[in-house]
Prior knowledge:
This protein is mainly alpha-helical. 76% of the residues lie in helices and 0% in strands. The C terminus is likely disordered.
Amino acid sequence: GQALDAFREAVAIDPSFALAWAGYAHAVDHKFRFSDLKLDETIELLERASYRALKLNDQQAEAHLAQDLLVVYRDGRWRSEREAGLVRAMELSPGLAEAWFRYSGYLQQFDDRLTDALSAVERAAELDPLSKQIRNQQVQVLSRLGRLDEAEQQLNRLIQLDPEFAVNYRTMAGILASKGRLADALIWQRRAQAKDPGNILFHLREVWFLTSMGMDEEYDGLMNRISTLDPNSSTEAFARTTLNLRQGRLDAALETATAYANALAPASMGGFGFRGMVQTLRNQPDEALLDFQRVFESNQDEPIGEEGWLRMARNVPDRACTAAWVCLLY
């Protein structure tokens, strides 16, 4: 919140300062991820900040990175325009570690570009060797490449160097889960929560562990913590839908998935894709199709494409396959 206040003051003093508007956008993103800023307000602030930054100086890498944030929040995780903007940022400022870091994060979404993602984050680490976030992302890419032992070794060294950086504990939980060590992974996930108890994403990640390990008896306590941290938001609805699906309570899952989708809209239509998956599990392909079409219409560059949504809605022979799609996409 302090960073956002400082950038707000900076642009008030000098509205023509493009770099301040770019910083404003980054501060908005940070507040949304780690505080109580709502999605619709986040998008509204990012629209204003990124537009001003680019209009004032479209030859500045930071302005293009600010625009990239807006693309992400507008259901644009997969839009082709992301790559063009990130590449342009690197062209304008090849020594800017943040540009290489963000480009690596974008490339991580594609299995056939993980080697490029590793090269990009390694370049970012050369430019900013002290960045904890960059070093963490380097480990994440190694993990995605299947180099789990190497990733675990690097992460252990990072934790020894900075035992207070909570994100490393969360990443360790993911690596151990990939190795099938779910009990150990849950311990590390809870260590992340202990280091940063206000980070709701760490609590939300525990949902996956509890459902995977069949620890339903601990779910109510987790739900209470999530509700306290983020009241009246989509987070609890998402978590409860996950539990309802695991327990086979499809009617209840539809109810909570609807609450989740409505909480995100109209700023994001992605929640309707989640509800569409639940509709498919309930053998309601026509209703699922309507939800999938809403997502597609809001983001026509979604990689699965319209044909894929239609096929999934009408021809899913195995419910387990659909449940896997739920986990994969959301």
